[in-house]
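Aim 2, interim progress: modelling of the adenosine-5'-diphosphate-bound target.
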Amino acid sequence: MALIAVNDLSVGYGSQIVAENINFKVEAGDYLCIVGENGSGKSTLMKTLLNLQKPVKGEIIKGDGLKENEIGYLPQHTDVQKDFPASVKEIVLSGCLGRSGFKPFYTSADKKLAFENMERMGITELSGRSYRELSGGQQQRVLLARALCATRKLLLLDEPVSGLDPKVTAEMYSLIAELNKEGVSIIMISHDIGAAVGYADHILHIGGNVFFGTREEYLGSKLGRFFLMRQSRDDESMPLFKPRKKNPYSIMMSEDSGTAETEAGNASEETAAETESEKASENGVNAEQDADNGNEKKEVKDNDR
Ligand code: ADP
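Predicted structure of the complex, ligand included:
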């Protein structure tokens, strides 16, 4: 049974729906990226998965022995969090609070776990420092260590690299990938579609069109190609995702490519997907709308894993 199975879910506030027709599954060991336009409801979906928000419609089934307190959460970095006055050690330890009911003290097992996770995240030497004095990357490592104190089963990460510079971003992504290799299941919201298809094995795209499937299926779908191409056009720092003419996603889809950075050499080539999306706009056809007609739409129903 899947860790999480989501059936015909609509999420929103009160009766106001912000995203609907959401169907997907997360199996143990999966790495799922949730992508979509700004405001499409990604954070709302994550809060709904965490029970912080009630579903407007549909169901979320937690299975495979997953308990409510076995989901680690790394929320979006807010200015309020950045100024949090506690020490690194206190913050990491606070991740242990929900493990065996809320008790007014930490056990020696909690302290050992906090220490191990600080070691794992390479922040042991920062343990006595105030969180607010740390760099953005160090702060995210602290929050990851805290989330790992809550669980090693499933981490929900809401834009974990937001505001980080490219080098620290790459470090954070590789840390998350290592955790996933160690067996931690990941659900990550990302506005960075390049990283999403570079690291995740499954993609959930929400908004007007909903897609759920493997990374390869997403890259082969019109919705995925359109979104990827548009982002790489909008974002100068993403030329690496311009695919090859003959077989647009050959490198990105190859298992041993690791990250999608291997696409860098193809930056200047005109591409099949580019031509396709250009053709689509010339004809007045919106690739997303086309996908909406069901041609390329892949929801969990017809893609049950
Ligand atoms: P995303 O994470 O994809 O950028 P969000 O889930 O943050 O999108 O927001 C989806 C929509 O829900 C937005 O239109 C946003 O304004 C609205 N929204 C977010 N939080 C609330 C809230 N607490 N109450 C009502 N509407 C909200």
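The longest helix spans residues 166-181. The chain has one domain: 1-66+153-305.
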